[in-house]
């Protein structure tokens, strides 16, 4: 880490502490050249790239609000949605990427949503995969039947 004052190419960590439930680490650093101190914040970055090309930090609450619509009237609790959003984030982080397209976030939502509620899954999939005919629904339902038989 370059010193922001003298641009020295190295710095020494004098203190580290976690913040935000352990998702962020704040470090105090000291420059061995000019001795000035500065702080850095470190987090495992994960940003979502929208179709417009603009990136924004991954947000579990956006996942939840996207899925909540599909869950209207279904016996799905807020706690279950929170767990689903956590699973989605974990599955994306496990792939090791630091950037993901919004479309691929939808893909990561499908599996845990299927485990949670089949009707909500079909609703979400119909929007996400652009179902435009009864055949699309029939195919998706046939897939679900096959999987539940297996
Ligand atoms: Zn310096």
Separate helix tally? 5
Number of domains: 2
Largest sheet: 3 strands, antiparallel
Number of strands: 6
The percent range for helix content is 40-55%
Q: Which regions are unreliable across 5 or more consecutive residues at pLDDT < 50? A: none
Overall radius of gyration: 22 Å
Structural class: alpha+beta
Distance N terminus to C terminus? 53 Å
Strand content: 15-25%
> What general outline do the C-alpha atoms trace?
elongated
Biggest sheet, spatial arrangement of strands: 1-2-3
Bound molecules: zinc ion
Mean pLDDT rating: 91
Q: What is the H/E order?
A: EEEEEHHEHHH
What does this structure look like?
The structure is a single chain. The protein is of the alpha+beta class and 150 residues long. The protein folds into 2 domains: 12-43, no CATH class; 47-149, no CATH class. 47% of the residues lie in helices and 21% in strands. The protein has 5 helices and 6 strands; from the N terminus they run βββββααβααα. The chain has a 3-stranded antiparallel sheet with strand order 1-2-3, with no helix packed on it. A hairpin with a 6-residue loop joins strand 2 (24-30) and strand 3 (37-43). Helix 1 (60-70) crosses helix 2 (78-94), helix 2 (78-94) crosses helix 3 (102-116) and helix 3 (102-116) packs antiparallel against helix 4 (118-128). The longest helix is centred in the middle third of the chain and has 17 residues, at 78-94. The radius of gyration is 22 Å and the shape is elongated. It binds zinc ion (ZN). The site of zinc ion has 8 residues, from loops.
